Amino acid sequence: MKHSRWRALLRKPETSSFLILCLAVVFFTVANDRFLSPLNVSNLLAFLPELGIIALGMTLLLTAGEFDLSVGAVFAFCPVISMLLVQHAGIDLGTALIVGFALTATIGAANGLFVTKAGISSFLVTLSMLLLVRGCTLFATQGFPLASWSGESILQILLAGSFYVGEVRLHASIIWFAALAALMFYVLNYSKVGNWISAIGSNRSAAVARGVPADAVKIGLFIVTSLLAGLAGIISSLRISSASPVAGDQYELEVIAMVVVGGTALTGGRGTIIGTIIGVFLLRIIRNGIVLVGVPGLAFNIFVGGIILIMLMVHSIVHKRSIRS
Known about the structure:
Layout: H1 2-11, H2 13-31, H3 38-63, H4 71-88, H5 93-116, H6 122-141, H7 154-160, E1 162-165, E2 168-171, H8 172-190, H9 192-202, H10 204-209, H11 214-240, H12 251-262, H13 273-292, H14 300-324
Antiparallel strand pairs: 1-2
Helix pairs in contact: 2-13, 3-8, 3-9, 3-11, 3-12, 3-13, 4-5, 4-6, 4-11, 5-6, 5-11, 8-9, 12-13, 12-14
């Protein structure tokens, strides 16, 4: 029984990702004693949840066999539009955020409709949307970051407030990330919608034949992914007290890398929220750790590319063995 349980555990895609994460933590801890210092842990956890929130939506979308390249542009668009409304239209922060999220949901719905109803690949649709949204954001701001949010409201505290656990400073975003991860884990693994998502990603035609509303599910997932990108952007802008039109540049690639490293299949049908959480921590730890040990930050993409290739091979081997057994 024990051997069978260990074999079942080793077949999970999350296991290999977790082992790599543990090795990375040990390596950077040995290489630099400041890695686990309260200050460095605080810095590491300050930005990590924001990319993690986007990665949660991307996990569901990839499981359904689609992906969204516009999330980085939406990350900048939502806070920029909200801040413009606050500063130039005299609208309060809460109303401005509602408008910003409504526009963000519209972007996601447009992505979903073009993919499902027009039959255009999600790569082309969301690449076009990336350029369109980023262009609108740059035009609206003339390429300049907007001034800081004025005042400190309850919304700002709830979205971007900070608190201490011992000597480590944490932000409210870590709570949002944990809560959303728990919700997405339940949806993907224990709900009917989760079964639909996996079925659509595995074999869309078979899923539709069984009565699964594939188009509606995909449109919903595009909306959710876009909303999560907008939420992450709002949290980030509130945390640093400014909104930049170039924020989120290339986040879409980093987020997809986090999800894939965690064990979610690019071909659809297999997704893991736990693996995504591990992937988020792994890539952020590597980005933080290589700087601490003296490797130029520009070399980060080299490490990420290598890890993605390694993890893809590992996940492929594990998946093939699990099918045979």
